[in-house]
Amino acid sequence: MKIAILSQDASLYSTKRLKEAATEREHEVRVINYLRCYMNITSHKPTVVYQGNPLEEYDAVIPRIGASRTFYGTAVVRQFELMGVFSANESQAISRSRDKLRCLQILAREGIGLPVTGFAHATQDIDGLIETVGGAPLVIKLLEGTQGIGVVLAETHQAAKSVIEAFRGLDANILVQEFIKEAKGADIRCFVIGGKVVASMKRQGAEGEFRSNLHRGGKAEKIKLTPEERSTAVRSVKAMGLRVAGVDLLRSNHGPVVMEINSSPGLEGIETATGVDVAGKIIDFIEKNAVPNKLSDRIRY
């Protein structure tokens, strides 16, 4: 097969591992900086051009789209889809999962466990918003934040009000969520490929840190999921229409709750903690499912 990995940086661990896994299986693989691609949008013969040359005869693409580059990155993925190229994750599903508010609303519609979440526009409604999620302590999140950046724990009502006013003063969109104290600064990352959880790890936040992100100094270890946690992860990914995703769960007193779904989950933490060849499993999935020149019925432009 001829596979393109859409990534800004060929030296990143995840990009390198995917290239290694594809090469080991004797596929022709190339890392392409999607931001340097340009597109010929035509009904006769849509094309993607990179470094002056049309990208032709690819069987599959693996999108590794940065959160801040979602708009252009998904446009490139969508162009490949128009060309009949199989994508490990479809453009519409990536866009759906990147919009945190839309993602939570879709999960709520499917009856999937979530932390109590509030969203508002006007600063005049802050007091009501805080009470909607049960009052302080609570967590305030920037909708555009990643890797734990833009996530604040407010211990008191006044602190929460001040943070929300500050964010809204910058015209930043935020979510307000209940603080799951019983999680004790830990979450669970479930890696789902093709409707199955292939690896899972527990991430524990650093001392005094409620965020468990490895980028924030958290530690990871392999963990065994409960049947309910496994089901929640799989249902969440299915609801988003994703094929490859990381699902972050918290263990709450009312069962597992979904915090986030990542359409370009990192491989280093999960592979190191579990010893599972996740990159290889992604390539295996593509081998079994890539059908040339076939558009998914789910794609809507």
From TrEMBL:
InterPro entries: ATP-grasp, ATP-grasp_RimK-type, ATP_grasp_subdomain_1, RimK, Rimk_N, Rp_bS6_RimK/Lys_biosynth_LsyX
Positions annotated to bind Mn(2+) 1: D248, E260
One cellular-component annotation, GO: cytoplasm
One of the record's GO molecular function terms: metal ion binding
Record Pfam families: RimK, Rimk_N
GO biological process: SOS response; translation
Cofactor: record remark: Binds 2 magnesium or manganese ions per subunit.
Keyword Transcription regulation in record: no
Matches recorded under SUPFAM superfamilies: Glutathione synthetase ATP-binding domain-like
Binding site for Mn(2+) 2: E260, N262
Similarity comment: family membership: Belongs to the RimK family.
Record's keyword terms, sorted: ATP-binding, Ligase, Magnesium, Manganese, Metal-binding, Nucleotide-binding, Protein biosynthesis, Ribonucleoprotein, Ribosomal protein
Residues that span the membrane, as ranges: none
Cofactors (names): Mg(2+); Mn(2+)
Organism: Euhalothece natronophila Z-M001
Annotated binding of Mg(2+) 2, by residue: E260, N262
Stated name of the protein: Probable alpha-L-glutamate ligase
Domain ATP-grasp: 104-287
Entry annotated with the keyword Cell membrane: no
UniProt binding sites for Mg(2+) 1: D248, E260
Residues annotated for ATP binding in this entry: K141, E178, F179, D187, R211, S212, N213
Lineage: superkingdom: Bacteria
Enzyme Commission code(s) on record: 6.3.2.-
